[in-house]
Structures are given as C-alpha cells and as structure tokens.
Amino acid sequence: QVQLVESGGGLVQAGGSLRLSCAASGRTVSSYAVGWFRQAPGKERAFVAVISANARITQYADSVKGRFTISRDNAKNTVYLQMNNRQPEETAVYYCASESRSASSRLTYSDSRAYDNWGQGTQVTVSS
Questions:
Q1: CA separation for the pair 12, 17 (Å, rounded)
Q2: CA distances from 61 to 24, 25, 51, 79, 112 (A)
Q3: Are 48 and 95 in contact (CB under 8 A)?
Q4: 89 phi and psi, to 5 degrees?
Q5: Mind listing the pLDDT tens digit for each residue in 68-98?
C-alpha cells in the first residue's frame, strides 16, 4: 500500500504561483500514473492533471492548460504540480492520487475512480 502526502499548499495572491508536491512512501509509484484533483467548497472533486509513469504523457483540465505543469521525479518518488497565474476561484483542497491497476480500463485518467490511493489533501487559498 502506498501512502501519498501532499505539501506546498497555502495562501497565494491572484496571479501568483505555487508548487505542490506529492511524496509517496510505502512503495514506489514510479510505475504508476499519478493525478492531481481539487475540491472547492460545496463542489465535487475535479480533475486537474495527470502524468504517466514514464512522464512522457501529461494531460490537463482545460481550465489549467498553459498555467499548470505536472512533473515527476521518480528517483525521489515525488510528483509536482506547478501552478502559475492563480485565480481566486481555484481555492480548493488539492489531492494527489495514484492509478488503480484494478479499475476498469474504460475509465479515463480524468475520472477519480481510476485511482485507488489518495493523499489527505493540501489547502490552497487564492486571494483576490
């Protein structure tokens, strides 16, 4: 069982930048895709970005394309989310998750059901 721990959250002004980290322990996630999701107050958890195990493939939600960058350092068993030009409506708890090998192959990586290990989340607040 892998444990994921997010860090790097906090308060940032609109237009500012922040980098989140997702550190894995218990087992390596180097052979798993890892995704980032966020959940704003009163809203459902939403897909943000995903990176393949070998980092060759990344996908982003349309709302963050061009502003967010997902990356990974498999030697450190860590995945990052660089967030630039933050917007106040992006205030949320940000979660990372590793893919599930038992989930249906019909699920896309933007579907939270494609993941089976989740971190506890880190709060990001964007002030206007």
A1: 7
A2: 23, 27, 12, 17, 13
A3: no
A4: -70, -5
A5: 999 999 999 999 999 999 999 999 999 999 9
